[in-house]
Amino acid sequence: MSDxxxxxxxxxxxxxxxxxxxxxxxxANWAGVVVETNEAALPEDGAxxxxxxxGAPPTRPWQQxxxxxxxxxxxxxxxxxxxxDGFGTGTRALADRxxxxxxxxxxxxxxxxxxxxxxxxxxxxTLGYVRKVAQSIEYHAEGLADLLRHLSTSIGHGIALIDSExxxxxxxxxxxxxxxxxxxxxxWVDLTQAGQGAAxxxxxxxxxxxxxxVAFFGxxxxxxxxxxLAVAAEVAMPAVAARILIDEVAEVSDASVSSxxxxxxxxxxxxxxxxxxxxxxxRGWRTTGYHLAFRIVGRSRVDALQLLRxxxxxxxxxxxxxxxxxxxxxxxxxxxxxxxxxxxxxERYIAALRDLHVEARRSFNVATAVGSLASGSAGLTSSLGExxxxxxxAANRSTTGWFVRVDGLGLEQLLLAWxxxxxxxxxxxxxxxPLQTGNGELLTTLSAYLDHESAVAPTAAALGxxxxxxxxxxxxxxxxxxxxxxxxxxxxxxxxxxxxxx
Length: 502
Known about the structure:
Elements: E1 5-6, H1 7-12, E2 20-23, E3 29-30, E4 33-36, E5 50-53, H2 61-73, E6 78-81, H3 89-98, E7 101-104, H4 108-119, H5 122-137, H6 144-155, E8 158-163, E9 166-171, H7 177-182, E10 189-194, E11 197-203, E12 213-219, H8 223-268, H9 274-282, E13 290-298, H10 304-315, E14 321-327, E15 330-337, H11 343-360, E16 366-370, E17 374-375, H12 376-394, E18 403-405, H13 411-418, H14 424-432, H15 441-451, H16 456-463, H17 467-481, H18 488-501
Parallel strand pairs: 4-5, 5-6, 6-7, 16-18
Antiparallel strand pairs: 1-3, 2-7, 8-9, 8-12, 10-11, 11-12, 13-15, 13-16, 13-17, 14-15
Helix pairs in contact: 2-3, 4-5, 5-6, 5-8, 6-8, 8-9, 14-18, 15-16, 15-17, 15-18, 16-17
InterPro entries: CdaR-like_regulators, CdaR_GGDEF, PucR_C-HTH_dom, PucR_C-HTH_sf
Domain PucR C-terminal helix-turn-helix: 442-500
Family: Belongs to the CdaR family.
């Protein structure tokens, strides 16, 4: 069967002259192709082949019926001719009854070339795909998605970047789930057919992300097309891998900048600063209106950038203005409303954030906390601070699925609120007094350490210190305070105290 010319493969060919099935079997295949200017020039022995006639067909229904009968009587199994889509219902019914494929074609010679490639010139088919890929690689893409779109348009088939879990990006169509499930992620090249769908994929040699494949796919592709597309995928793969790396470097840089902007904004504690406001607005972050902040952190080691990718995608499905960025070992974000939302609306948005958290936990070991609704710059700062504090409680709350909201913490909410009142502040100052000696560097280091999720490297980067210096100061602070900072409750209490004193 693979040596025969298949209708499905012909329809899937990107340069098939605009051929369309008008009547007859949809799963037809033929022994070859004959091209003539008119029906009378066709040989008497069709031998189960496709007849391509370049001239115009007869216009009267009885003449069209006769054309189909004579071509079939000569032993041909199919006829492709211009204007065949204008044949009447009687002629179409005749073709169906005879099991004869009647095809309309806009450009018969282009169809003939496609047939020749599929039957006689596999190298030509492969070289055609490779040439188009090479031209696409020269295109200055704006990003990976843009590159895939250009490759798909040039090749004339769908293209997808996939891993074993599913489709990460695709263009030119949707990769069927049954085709994805049938792809073997082990070998360098894989040719897959499942149902009507097929794909030729190759492993992406990416230094930053493992388990990726780039796949060209489509319906009706035969073995020859898949083999040619596999070569095209191998040629395209280095460009795809390079684009992934370029985009990731840009993404890391952007995340670093946005994290710095958020840190500077929070440090202002609601005080106006035109420069920070300008930087916030440049990122599309509005501080006016009403805000509901959230904080997601890893309960074990997580890739903050990967987590941000997930959170950003999930936030896009929530119908409200939203923002997020990496912050320490997690992600901070908020929802913004131009007008104060009604309580039922707030509950729906919190439920949406809970759903986001549940979905995130399928891939990341995280805890999530949601602050209270607040207005303006000061309110955003407050809600972010509440979420940052409360997430430490969430990290130890298996009973709530490691998700808490400040408004539902009860007594613990009061503890968080005490950090700003006259009762808590003196107690916090007394607790931290041993760290106030000298220039207060121990207190400064401890505060930054707790702000950065008890991580030495980010703390050192934030303070401009060596990691060994930070580790030494934290050990000294524990000794002076007589506490065990391995205890999450101790860390929470100390963090609240540091916030109150600052």
